[in-house]
Every structure is written in C-alpha cells, then in structure tokens.
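Hello again,

I reread your note about wanting to compare the complex against the isolated chains. To keep things tidy I'm splitting this into two emails, and this first one only covers the full assembly. Below are the input lines as submitted, including protein chains and any nucleic acid or small-molecule components. They are followed by the predicted structure of everything together. The single-chain runs will come separately.
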Amino acid sequence: MTPPAVDERQRTVDDFGTSRLLGHVRGSIERTFRELLEATPDAMVIVDQNGEIVLLNAQTERLFGWSREELLGRPVEVLIPARYTAHHRAHRASYFTDPRARPMGVGLELWGRRKDGSEFPVEISLGPLDTERGMLVMSAIRDVSERRRADERAQLLIRERAARSALEEALRARDEFLAVAAHELKTPVTGLAGFIELLLREMERTGAVDPQRLRQALGRIGEQSRKLSTLVTQLLDLSRIQGGQLRLEASPTDLVALARQAIAAAGGGATPRSIELEAPSALTAEVDPQRFGQVLTSLLDNALKYTPPDGHIEVSVASQDMHALVTVTDHGGGIAGGQRDRLFDEFYRVDPRAPVGGTGLALLVSRQIVAQHAGTLVAEVPSEGGMRLVVRVPIARGAPRTEAVTP
Amino acid sequence: MRILVIEDDEAIAELIELALGQEGHEVTVAADGERGLAAADQRHPDLILLDMLMPVLDGWSFAARYRGSPGPHAPIVVMTAAADAMQRAAEISAHGVLAKPFTLDELHNAVSPYEPADRQDPSSARGP
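Full-complex prediction:
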C-alpha cells in the first residue's frame, strides 16, 4: 500500500515543478516577444477586438509623443487624424472577420496623428495574433515622411532636368537656326560685294567701265539683292513662327488644287522638267491655303534644284488615317543616299532619324509651317535614289494649337 | 593658269570667272560635279575651285571620282559657306580652302600659290 502522503507530496512537487517550468517558458516567450517588439524599427501597436491598445513598443511612444501608460487601454483611433476615425472603426471591425497579414489601405495615403495633433504620412502592415485573450491585431507603423520628401525631391529633380533639357534643346535649335541663316546669307553677300568690287577694280585699272560689263554686273547686283531680301523675309517668317506670332488662317482647302497651282508656278512657271501629279480629284483638309501653298512651292523648288533638265519629279496627294499626305519625289541622279544624308548635315536636322535640309531656310520655314498645322515634314531617301519629302497633316484641325512651336 | 570653277550658283561662278579672267587666268565654269569631271578631262586645269553642295554630283563625290580617274590631278581648293570651312576641306583632303563670303583679294590669295613656277604672277611671287 502506497502511503497517500507520499502520493500527495509527489503530486504537489510534480505540480509545482510543471507550473514553474511552464511559467518560465511563458515568461521567456513573453520576454522574447517583447524584446522582438522593441527591436523592430517600426512602431508596433497591438489592439484587441474592441480596438483598445493592449501592447506597444518604445518606437510608438517616440513616434506619436504619447507615453505607454497614456496609450494602454485607449482606442487605437487616438493615433489617427479625427477625419478618418469613423472610417477606421468600420474597417477595423471588418478586419476581424477576415484577419490575414496585409498592408493597410493599399493605394491610399495614410496619416498618423501625434499627441500634439500634428500629422505625418505612414505606412501600416497588419497581422492577426491568435492568443488566449482572443484575436489581437498587430500593426507595424512606419513614418514615411522622409521617404515622401525624398520622392518629392526626386520628382522636382526630374522636372528640373526636363526643363533644363527643353531649354538646351531651344538653345541648340537657335544655334542651328543661326548657322543656317549665316550659311544662306553668305552666297548673296559674296555676290553683292564681289560684283561691286569688280566694277571698282576695273574703274581703277582703266579709268572706265565697259558698258556691257557694267550692265552685267548691275544685273547681278540687283539679283543678289533680291535674293538677300527673300532670305530676310524667310528669316522673319521663321522668327515669327518661333516666337509664336504666326497666326494660321486655316480653312477647308483643296490640297489637290493647291498642288496644281504650285506645280504650275514651279521654277518660275517655265521649267523643262516634267512634274507628274498623282492625286484624287480633290482632297480637302483644314489648312492655311497661303502658307500651305508656300510649303508646296518650297518642296518643289528643292526637288527642281536636284533634278537635271531632262529629269522628272513626282507629286502625290493622298489621305491616310485622317491625315493628308503630300509627297514630292525627285530622282536627283548621281548623289548616293549616304552622301545625300551628309549633305543635310550641313543644314538642319528635323530629328536625328529624318534629316531635312538641302535648301536650308525655305525647307526650315516649311517644316515650321507644317508643325503649326500639327503635322510633320520628313525626308526619305528611297532605295532607288533621289529624295522624297513627305508632308503629313491632319485633315481636320483638332484643338487649336496655342503653344509656340519650337524647332 | 587654267582654272576650273565648279559652282552651281550662277552669280558666284560668273563673279569668279570675271575676277580671275581680269587677272589673266583662263577660267572654265561647270555647274555641277558631273560637268566638272567632263571639263577636267577636256581642259586639264592647273587648279580646281570646288563648291561642295551641288546638285547632280556634289563636291565629295566629284573629288572621289576625279582622283580615281587617270592623272595627273590638279590641286583642289574648296569653296564653302559651312561654319567650319577647314573641316570641309579636310573631308576631301583639299589643298586649300576659300570660305564664303570672300572678297576678290581673298579669291586672289587662294589661287596664287598654285601658279606654275614658270608663269608666276609677279605681284604674288615670293622673295628670291
């Protein structure tokens, strides 16, 4: 027979040992949990199903300006700007019906509120904790003001960079414009000064000028002056366009009729080269007839310049995707594509992939006028040689372009 | 000396023809590179004044084809309105460059170094 006292004592000892052990374990787990909580860089706030704060770490005190004692047992909404509290209460209730770890308010800007009422942007992650006290919710709260500021700085930097590159682009365009202007002006200036010099030389040498020579030189001087005057007009056109002062008077215009007129007038109306027109009977687009006619004339002049007297030029007018397409193709013999590309380097590049130039100012003005029509002017070098200039403008003008077109 | 002027601008070509003619040179004018090649073949010039941007056959192509033809080859002086005239001249290994706009004196100075020694113009002759 086993003495009950021994049994009793044994059981007591046993009980004592187990509960002490369990107590140690629980204490150690709790300690570990608290240490973990304190080691986290985020503010950690644990609330129960009523939304009352049951646990928090020192980061929470620092971040929100409340002390641990002040917060324990308070509704978690004390940490949220007043305007969000009702909303938050509803969300908190629904979280308990589907508790899983997730970030809070995805896509929303979340705000925390300090004890002094000031607010700061936060990011919050939520996680359920199943405990003997029932379901708790643990939230990790991170102050993102610094990151938000860094983002803003980065955005500012990006905007500044864009503004600077736009400015650089404008300066580069101006430099190119000046280079083109100088290039184009040099030839008539050489002619003007040269013929005058020639006459003076002859007078110094012989005391007189042969009347025939005088007439010839004066003819050239007049011609070069007119050339200069045309160039100056074009330069003024360009600077007006670039200054946003060129007002288009757009109206429904038959581009085919416009092309016929330009062809008839091309090369002073007396050109031995044949110009073929491929077009429907009419194609109406909303353009400024005078300015657009000027563009077509410039394209034809350019083509004529590169076409031998027995050569031919093709002009086409067509519609494509709500746009009118006008092309002028020449077959300038003897100039291979690669060399022709280099020829454009001398003048102006519409964009690095599609250089336009050759006759300088007139094409530059054309390109600007087309741009004012919300269209494009590009050069293509067909595989069979020659060059094709392609104008593409919308058939109907959309919202009026108010901003200045910069090249 | 015999000078071939390859220039598509009529007025400039005429000006050069008259100015150099006044100085006693024998000037031939061609309006593009293609005609320049034919003229060079016929007239065997002592010097070629070459514009770069021309229809039909430009200065670059002219220089390449001219030098590829049986010699002898005359020196080439490039005439250009490009911002970087020296660069243009270097591109075709030209002997000289005449930047536009130019005065008649500059034209004279660009041409005179190529005067054949036995026919050198006294006004531009170097010292003994």
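For quick reference: Chain B has one domain: 2-117.

B.
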